[in-house]
Amino acid sequence: MKEFLFVFRNDYKAMAANTSPEAMQGMMKKWMDWMGGIAAQNKLANPGNRLGSEGKVLRPNGVVTDGPYSEIKELIGGYIIVKAASFEEAAELAKGCPILEVEGNVEIRDIVPM
């Protein structure tokens, strides 16, 4: 089995504007159910984390700027690492991701051991 990184992106402005506390609870349950299903198949290598909305970017010559940038539409919201035999199998696991219900997307990247 290989490991694949799922990077979750969404339009954070649209999410924040359209999310009640009740809707957030419902969405969290969907996330837990989806990740639990992957874990039940013994294919969840790392449960990942949700990322905050603030950050910094270190550039060459030690320049630090604020980020993520307000002018970008999509924001990386979090990640998990899964185990799968192929990109196709990883994509099948990703198809149930709740972020797809809110017009977000899942980037699937293979992890190459150093």
Blueprint (SSEs and pairs):
Layout: E1 2-11, H1 12-17, H2 21-40, E2 44-50, E3 55-59, E4 63-67, E5 74-84, H3 87-94, E6 105-110
Antiparallel strand pairs: 1-5, 1-6, 2-5, 3-4
Task: Identify the notable features of this structure and list them briefly.
39% strand; 4-stranded antiparallel sheet; 30% helix; 6 strands; alpha+beta; 114 residues; flat; two-stranded antiparallel ribbon; Alpha-Beta Plaits
Description:
By secondary structure, the protein is an alpha+beta fold. It has a single domain (2-110), classed as 2-Layer Sandwich (Alpha-Beta Plaits), CATH 3.30.70.1060. It has three helices and six strands; from the N terminus they run βααββββαβ. It has helices spanning 12-17, 21-40, 87-94, and strands at residues 2-11, 44-50, 55-59, 63-67, 74-84, 105-110. The strands form two sheets. It has a four-stranded antiparallel sheet. It has a two-stranded antiparallel sheet with strand order 3-4. The protein is flat, with a radius of gyration of 16 Å. The two termini are 16 Å apart. The model has no long low-confidence stretch (mean pLDDT 88).
User: Fraction of residues in helices?
Assistant: 25-40%
Q: Structural class, from helix and strand content? A: alpha+beta
CATH fold-level topology: Alpha-Beta Plaits
In CATH terms, the superfamily is: Dimeric alpha+beta barrel
As an assembly, this protein is single chain
* Helix-strand pattern: EHHEEEEHE
For the record, the count of structural domains works out to: 1
**CATH hierarchy, class:** Alpha Beta
Shape: flat
- Using the 3D structure, state the CATH architecture: 2-Layer Sandwich
Q: Please count the beta strands (DSSP E, at least 2 residues each).
A: 6
Distance between the termini: 16 Å
